[in-house]
Amino acid sequence: MAKTNDDKAEKVGFHKGSLATLSKEREELMRILQIVEQLMQMHVKELKDLGVDLVGQAKEEAKKLKGKKPIEDVLN
């Protein structure tokens, strides 16, 4: 009987430890994503200051892709 309780406690500890580790990994990933987003926004701002119409370019690209290619071709 004691072995079953020890096994259960070991499994509980393993899963709690895994969740703690994964939670820290998720926090770090979110931090990295925030940095990347800030860098992207800096580049977007600079391009706008240089007169580049990113919205217009995105719309043109969307028109080119709309209904012309199967999704498999777009992804490759």
Describe what you observe in this structure.
This protein has 76 residues and is an all-alpha fold. It has one domain. 86% of the residues lie in helices and 0% in strands. It is built from 3 helices and no strands. It starts with a helix and ends with a helix.
Structural class: mainly alpha
Main sheet overview = none
Q: What's the helix count?
A: 3
Stretches where pLDDT falls below 50 for ≥5 residues? none
* Total count of strands: 0
The percent of residues in helical segments reads over 70%
| Proportion of strand residues | under 5%
In short:
With 76 residues, this protein is mainly alpha-helical.
Provide tags for this entry.
76 residues, mainly alpha, 3 helices, 0% strand
SSE layout and pairing:
Elements: H1 2-49, H2 54-65, H3 71-75
